[in-house]
Design a protein that fits this description.
This protein is an alpha/beta fold and 446 residues long. The protein has one domain: Rossmann fold, CATH 3.40.50.720. The chain has 14 helices and 13 strands. It has helices spanning 4-8, 41-61, 67-79, 88-98, 116-127, 144-156, 169-178, 200-220, 256-275, 297-307, 329-342, 372-383, 408-414, 422-440, and strands spanning 107-111, 131-136, 160-163, 183-186, 226-232, 279-284, 287-288, 310-315, 323-324, 327-328, 359-364, 370-371, 388-393. Strand 2, helix 6 and strand 3 (160-163) form a beta-alpha-beta unit. The chain is globular. The protein starts with a helix and ends in a 6-residue tail after the last helix. Homodimer.
Length: 446
């Protein structure tokens, strides 16, 4: 722990999350049918069987038998207890949190508000005067204490975070009855590529069923909100064309997590087409920064380097470097807010479409892929500790060897322009890390 004190002396302070993002118009970048036949009846019966079997699997995997889903339901049960939750005082708090400071401000529901990106987006919205209400189930995928600390940060800024599950229609209906949301920022998801091999049901429960549940609530709301949601760069899967562009193929997911995010994009298309919901998907590229996720490499590398533990660095089968398009969280927040600012209104009412609605997808990356080894070198410099490194071949667990974002579309239409390089971003992360874990002396987390 004594190694933490000198680190603070050579790190700059963290800037506040940015405000509204304005497009830079002067930029040089501005540039499926099934045919039925009686003889097909046996095949139809067979496919019906497979469909029913698939539904049964979904129900099984989404059941409370898995730890994450069970924890979500326990949290929801507590949040729906008769008193004091959901009473008049609860509704007053909900409305107060969601009330914007000005008549032109948005009223935004942020799901996954106690998550990494959700927290930063919520703070960014609140700082510029929008009304923000958070929703989070505080599952146990990683340290709940960190999520609670983020919740405390939000509450000190006047943002209420309701504890509950996006799969609960009753809770969502009560929230939409209490507040006429202009926008929904959907950040809630089961994250992590490798964890999908241990608990696949949690990904179906959160990323597919949860998204559908939220869209169902949005489609029946009056007025319907505009929706911005977090997809992922993982949808590009085994695509070898770089940099990744929005119109590249996304039909070869390398992990279940990627498959659920791709499914989310198809589900978004369906609800846009049928119900007139305005939906914008954002494909995030390896987001990092203060208040980050402990399951991310930059986070646990920092922890293990300070503890003197060996860290494993992946290489490809031909001994090449594994690289990521690391994107600093403040830059991602700019993109999220810009997507919100440029989102058009949904066209439906009472669950019925009344005209064509906006449907968009954008990459939010840094455009400068960095080898993981370079990330480790920067951490060694900032922490003033030499890492104990072991280079191993990347396992077949859903990871891909590289990511690289083409952000031309986001730059042209959103004015998105990342400004934080990896060294500066890691400097801000390390300063937060040693302050958070050092001052609190959370030895159990080390």
């Amino acid at each position: 722990m004594t190694q933490l004190k000198p680190i603070l002396t050579h790190l700059d302070s963290i800037p506040s999350t940015p405000g509204k993002f304005k497009p830079d118009k002067s930029s040089p970048y501005n540039l499926y049918r099934l045919r039925f036949h009686p003889t097909l009846f046996p095949r139809f019966t067979l496919w019906s069987f497979f469909f029913i079997f698939f539904i049964v699997l979904l129900i099984f995997f989404s059941s409370p038998t898995n730890p994450t889903a069970g924890n979500s339901r326990r949290s929801l049960k507590n949040s729906l207890s008769p008193s004091p939750a959901l009473g008049p005082n609860w509704e007053r708090r909900v409305r107060a949190s969601a009330r914007p400071r000005s008549k032109t401000g948005f009223t935004v529901l942020v799901t996954g508000a106690a998550g990494f990106v959700g927290t930063h987006v919520s703070l960014g919205l609140k700082r510029r005067g929008d009304g923000v209400l958070g929703l989070d189930n505080f599952n146990q995928y990683y340290d709940v204490g960190l999520k609670k600390a983020r919740q405390g940060l939000l509450e000190r800024s006047g943002i209420m975070v309701v504890e509950g599950d996006i799969n609960d229609a009753v809770l969502l209906r009560k929230l939409f009855d209490a507040v006429a949301f202009t926008h929904v920022m959907h950040m809630a998801a089961q994250a992590g590529v490798r964890y999908a091999m241990q608990n696949p049901g949690s990904y179906v429960h959160s990323n597919i069923a949860g998204f559908v549940s939220l869209l169902e609530a949005c489609k029946t709301a009056n007025p319907q909100p505009s929706i911005v949601w977090a997809s992922s760069s993982s949808v590009y899967g085994l695509n070898s064309k770089v940099p990744f562009s929005e119109n590249d193929r996304t039909d070869q997911p390398a992990s279940l997590y990627a498959a659920t995010k791709k499914a989310g994009e198809e589900i978004a298309h369906t609800y846009n087409h049928i119900y007139g919901l305005s939906i914008t998907g954002l494909r995030f590229f390896t987001v990092y920064g203060p208040w980050g996720r402990p399951d991310m490499a930059y986070f646990f590398f920092t922890k293990d380097i300070l503890r003197g533990k060996e860290i494993k660095i992946f290489e490809t089968s031909d001994h090449g470097s594994v690289a990521r398009d690391f994107t600093y969280v403040d830059d991602v927040v700019k993109g999220c807010l810009a997507a919100l600012d440029t989102a058009k209104k949904s066209t439906g009412s009472g669950g019925k479409k009344k005209g064509a609605a906006q449907l968009r997808i954008y990459n939010l990356g840094n455009t400068k892929p960095m080898p993981v080894g370079r990330l480790v070198s920067i951490l060694e410099k900032l922490l003033k500790v030499k890492a104990k490194k072991k280079v191993i071949q990347m396992p077949r667990n859903g990871d891909v060897p590289f990511t690289h974002a083409n952000i031309t579309l986001a730059h042209t239409e959103l004015g998105y322009k990342p400004t934080t390089d990896l060294e500066m971003g890691l400097k801000k992360f390390v300063k937060w890390y040693v302050s958070y874990y050092g001052s609190k002396k959370k030895k159990s987390s080390w």
